[in-house]
Amino acid sequence: MTDHPAEHAAWGEPDSTTAPAATAPVTPADAADAARLVAFGLQPKLQPARDQEYGELLRRYREDPPFARLADAVATGLGLVVLEVSPRAGMAVTAAEDSLFAVRMGDYARRAATDSTDRFLHGLAHLAVAALAFPRPEDLADDGYIGRVTVNGVDAFVRQACHRLEERAEEQGENTDPATDAPGLEAAWRIWARRSSTGATKDARRLAGSTTGIVAKAVAFLTDSGFLQRTGDDSGGTYRTTARYQLQVRDMAGSAAMAELLDLGVVPVTDGSATLLPPEDTDDLELAADAGLPFHS
Amino acid sequence: MTSPAVTDTAPPQLSAGPRPAQGPAADEGLARRLRALACTAPLHDLDVRKANLAGEYTVYAMAEVALSAIDLVTLNMDFDTGADHEQIVARLLPRVAAQAPRRPAAEHERVARWVLENLINVGSVDRGFRAVYGTFAPDGTYVRRDYDFKLLEEVPGYGGGVYLRTTDEAVNVLVGALDTDVTSAQIAAEVKLEVLINRGRLADAQLAAEQARYRTVQYAETLRKALDATRRNVRAVDWLRAVPDMIAEALDHVADRYRHENAILTNIRKARDESEDPEQKRRAAELVDIVKDCIRRHTQLQSRLLEAGPLFRAEQDRQAFAAPTARAGLDLYGQLLAPLLPLPAERATRVTDAFFARGTGLRTPVSVRVGDLVDLLLTPPVEREHLGAEMPEPDLIATPDDSRFSEEQLASAMDLLDLPSDAPRRLSGLLAEARLHDPELPYLVALLAVHAASPPVGTAYRQGEEKLLFAVDDGTELDDEEFGGADLIVGTALLDAAGMAADRTEAA
């Protein structure tokens, strides 16, 4: 299993010299196999368990280090980052920054390219889906965890968070209405809160510009990326996470967004165990007293 | 379709004075009133814009239709969803028709729909309104601000339907000042209603009853929001005091109102049956319907309240007794989403952009050949499928055995809890003893003890058990390094198995 991009630097070394003497030098056939494995990785919805050749190549990757390095090299050369190679996730590769395979916001949603509000809403929808799919730090860290999200659930969850901020601002007597000539200074939560959550349309489809429409677009896109699997139609659509999504969020997206946040000078302080915000005044590490007996005085 | 920008023309009078900054308090009050004023603007705007519609629509009083639409939505808001579009249009029609009886019915419907769509403001991307008003910042500078609000909002309902709800702004400004203390206002209304009925003044009584129903709806709405939050995350809600208090209060309220309204119902029925005047009879019959609706809403509320406790306990089991963290992960909500939301949009977008760029995965780019393009453009469009999308084949994954505790642990915990009936023990002692055996065991013991607080008496009775584990809270705080809460007294109750068996045979 290769996690470190640094290791990919090894691709420059000729494999024949570093490989143990017992293994044969790399042949064009090996290179073809390595490239085929990467090609399998580029089809994120393909399950290793369903394709015999894929499964065999994966086994070869894990058992044959020179082959593994070759496959890593092919991936790196194509502008891909290898997240994990395992039977559960397959050859989990993702696009490196500025790679040919990277998804651009403008291609993702046309309005988002020109409208900064829509751009933010689409980005936030993706973050919220991840936050609800992995509500606690343990869930993101636990390889066996399978998260479940619904479209309406994600919207309600963000609205709840926004509502809490609104209440807090009201308590402090703050006027959160933004100045007319500086829309960029409007607090982020207000943008989600003021967008309608759904809307009737003439052809009974979901209103694309509503927040549930935006979340639905995000989960549909993630499903195409092999990150979610649709399990039902309740609550606007229910979805289950895959191993690849967990890897992507944990190793790529989470840390990148975190770095950006720190760059803005915002240092979120948590004790590493806290989950969705508990009420401010309770001791987080303790079970609530009378917790099993909510009706006792 | 225009979104009314109202106050651009009217700067507040304060700015004309010699000392512009009047102190934040005066200005805040002004801002509040300006915002309240802004909420009425869309209604006035309807009457202004009706002249621009194709056709002769000046005969309709649009603001009146709009206000009654808001009333209808408020009244028809259900506990779970909201009011149905079509139903609201249908109920608006009689009023619209009364305004211009000679016009065709199709036009009436057009007017009703036009008003409803404008209250939602279908044309704007937010489906809301924006008004601009000015305030003085603490440093004395004059700042123009945007106030965004909605009157009717569309919410998702069951089965993908879209329903209407009135927003707090609309209820507060347009339905009446309802943000008073719900309970006391309700009591006042009920008393008034009773007095009015006794005096036979049914017209006023109907008004009072309708007001009482508005309050009932609002009470239900408050509770729905609180329960929703509970469902989402146990720890985000204060189950120590706030929620139990609220539930107890609401249950009292329901019990109280239910009694009260049944009494009123009897009264009105009497008025209805005894009255000679047909108008009186009709009003009384309407009142019966309103009060019946109130009672229905209370029953609905009550069943929700009773579900809250079990729901909390199930979530508590799932969340609090799960295995501890193997390694620290990133807390997506606490460390990313929550700190991001209060930021200015411009800066927050940088973070969401970073997440988006690396969190969406990859797309294999499509390369186009001219040959394919020609084929593609010349292919006739595919007929729309009427059967809907193909069902995706489910990917089945064997669920791993994720039991937190082993059979042996359960056995030793049961051993520990096998207490003699005359010697109950404190939970703290049991936990300490369990800890000596196995560091994991206290969790299982605590879980079993908490469950014993609500012992399955009915099951034990049916199965003829001879003893039953129970736990009682006598108010002592638990002093433990891992657990908090009440130091329960755990004991075994001996049951009269023979007597119960006899009872059962008798009952059968």
UniProtKB/TrEMBL annotation, chain A:
Biased composition range(s): Low complexity: 14-27
Highest taxon above the source species: Bacteria
Region (Disordered): 1-27
Name used for this protein in its record: Uncharacterized protein
TrEMBL record, chain B:
Annotated segments matching region Disordered: 1-27
Protein origin, superkingdom: Bacteria
Polar residues bias (residue ranges): 1-12
Protein name: DUF3375 domain-containing protein
Annotated organism of origin: Streptomyces alfalfae
Taxonomy of the source species: Bacteria, Bacillati, Actinomycetota, Actinomycetes, Kitasatosporales
